[in-house]
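[job 0412] stage=complex_fold ligand=adenosine-5'-triphosphate status=START
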Amino acid sequence: MIIKTIEIIGLALIRFIEEFGRVMFLFLATIVWMFRLPFRLHAIFKQMEFVGVNSLLVVILTGTFTGAVLALQAYHGFRLFSAESLVGSTVALAMTRELGPVLTSLMVTGRAGSAMAAELGTMRVTEQIDALYTMAANPIKYLVVPRVIAGVLMLPVLTIIADFVGIIGGYIVGVGLLNINSGIYIDKMIEIVELDDIFNGLVKAACFGLILSLVGCYKGFYTTGGAQGVGRATTQAVVIASVSILISDYFLTAAMF
Amino acid sequence: MAKEEPLSIIELIDVHKSFKGQKVLDGLNLRIETGKITVIIGQSGGGKSVFLKHTIGLLKPDQGEVLVEGVDISRLNDRQLNDVRKNFGMLFQGAALFDSMTVGENVAFPLREHTRLKQHDIQEIVERKLRQVGLKGVAHKMPSELSGGMKKRVGLARALALDPKIILFDEPTTGLDPITADAIDRLIVDTQEHTNATCVVISHDIESTFKIAHTVAMLYHGKIIEVGKPEDIRSSEDMALQQFIRGKAEGPIQIV
Ligand SMILES: Nc1ncnc2c1ncn2[C@@H]1O[C@H](COP(=O)(O)OP(=O)(O)OP(=O)(O)O)[C@@H](O)[C@H]1O
Ligand SMILES: [Mg+2]
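[job 0412] stage=complex_fold status=DONE, emitting structure tokens
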């Protein structure tokens, strides 16, 4: 019984290390191919549009309402010891340090990370990736590099937007609905939130962008087993990327703040 | 000096390949002559596509060698392999068109990758190649808007785009009507004559096989059991081969 359990744990561990190694291999290959000419600017812009521009609406909605609900919750807490004036800075800190980057990344994982896995997975099972190889066009350069670049560059941009609309959402609730004094609300916010808070949040976002695009590409690139395999790859990409984002968030935060 | 030894541009020596314990290629030996059309025949599921993928390094043998112009490609690194592949054009059994690109972009892809031609010239070549495979006015369509046979022909146009030295065709005429199939057969022969390319064709169509082939090879149980000129193959005594070219269900080849 005990031996069986150890065996299962051991096997799971081996599989995890193996998979992690393969992701790292893809990561290194991506870096190598990133710097080989010619640069595929067109493909990169196309992915940036897909990851960035097309996620705008989702990110704006998520950011605004997260900021709003934060203000609401913080208000109820702070009112107990008459610290309502701190609602603004609480919202701003939470958004810039944590919720902006994390929620944005989770939303983009669901939207774009899954699409990356599905797209590359389909290309794998319909032999389009093999076709790239036969035409002496490296699929990592062609497919993975633009997506990873787009992920790393666009997530910080989206996060800035999420931070901004989140703070606006908080302001609308705090000042508009709950009648906190506007001047104090803003003053406190500016006093407490530092540029580093925003900047560190953006570094996190870039890391999350790397994770979600790399995992999406990895799962898609190594898909096997037809349409069912594509479905599996897509689901796994979302789950693994989301969990990895949350876990790495802890360690990044611990290292930064 | 090597008078009776025809030059072989591709040579497979004792190639073995298994997938999860299932033996697909089992000591396959074959020399493919330079500047000739070699047709590979064999049962469905017999490993013809697997064989073809070995010749361009998409699959690596578990054991044995795959020589292209005398170089064992299973030992090359990515960059060297890419250089070898620039001599190849390949039509996949399922066409494998890039479904995010239009038909025209698909055919233009190898030209954009490996030549410095102007947009205008590329356009012209694309038009011409598509016309050769009997397609007109489809360049702007997406692959998903095409019929199976049309996809196959676009794949063919893409494989021919660079006038490669070695062209691999995985069932070029399967799924086409008899007239189009004949036109494609003729295109393969014409292309081969004009560019003096080496063509490896996988086919189920016995009639067209004998029409286009300089050499026919039969793949059976993971080996090439017979290679020869079409006449020789036709008059071969091998039971399995005879059964295959006559299309009989009874014989040494058992359908499970
Ligand atoms: N990537 C793979 N993984 C596992 N098994 C495979 C793979 N590719 C091919 N096979 C197996 O190898 C065998 C030969 O397949 P192959 O596609 O070469 O057949 P084929 O001769 O081309 O058949 P057809 O004429 O129907 O196209 C099949 O049994 C198939 O299941
Ligand atoms: Mg096949």
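Chain B touches chain A through 23 residues (CB under 8 Å).
[job 0412] exit 0
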